Amino acid sequence: MSKIKVLCVDDSSLMRQMMTEIVNSHPDMEMVASAPDPLVARELIKQFNPDVLTLDVEMPRMDGLDFLEKLMRLRPMPVVMVSSLTGQGSEITLRALELGAIDFVTKPSLGIREGMLAYSQTIADKVRAASRARLPTRGAQSAPVMLKAGPLLSSEKLIAIGASTGGTEAIRHVLQPLPATSPALLITQHMPAGFTRSFADRLNKLCQITVKEAEDGERILPGHAYIAPGAMHLELARSGANYQVKLNDGPPVNRHKPSVDVLFNSVARFAGRNAVGVILTGMGNDGAAGLLAMNQAGAWTIAQNEASCVVFGMPREAIALGGASEVLDLNQISQHMLAKISAGQALRI
Q1: Which CATH number covers residue 48?
Q2: Which one, out of 1, 184, 302, 309, has a CA that is 20 to 30 A from the CA of 294?
Q3: Annotated catalytic sites, by residue?
């Protein structure tokens, strides 16, 4: 079996050395070359034809975003961004994902060598997922058709969404058409602390509904979407007759924190047949068991189909477990979620 060929683009010689060491420590991949800037990288891409590119953001001569935009237009290939964990860094990283990057790795702020070595398995997992990913084509998804607003739906109805690799754009595609009268949404996207607030703010500017990073104890309201904060599990809870956000600082589940399974299991318990569950693109199996629990509790459950996924991992596992009521293209999910809620068909007998 041939190895995954990786090319690293980073102006830091230490980072290039560390990425090379990490990649070459895994037997199924190799660092074929590294470049200090995009202009050198352009020639190395022609020479080595890598399977995956790891790309820094701030570099001399041409920054990572400019290079990524040109690359995805002229020579599309799987790209994993390497980003600093800062407010500005998170905005730039989210823009990179919009431009077509598959995923990102955060640089540790202190102790680069020790920090990067601790990320070795995570980096390897992201490189593997990128090498198998379906490249997102800019403009390939049809523009979202805004769904018509109906009467304000009861706060008893809600939607739970889970995603990982490729999920930031998939979630945007699902949320953007929703009317302001949409039922409440709880969303877990695998993302580290420092990025989820920027992600929520970005969605809030694009959507008719209000999108925010979830806060512990707040009441869950229709017309609002609540994003799990990075490094915290998001759960549904009840306070009397009302739904409430519960944030959980427990250990990772399925190697993730936040975990989709934690969210889905809580929705199965407290909302049952009043909920719709949606599992979107992502690697691994987080959310598969939780979607099955929702399904068994009477919720209507949707898995994204392979053709529209960047990585058909989490939906595939959920389907294999029997947890999906239906499998849909990304373009169909928004309409189907609201149809099931509005028609009361989530109340399965």
Answers
A1: 3.40.50.2300
A2: 309
A3: 164, 190, 286
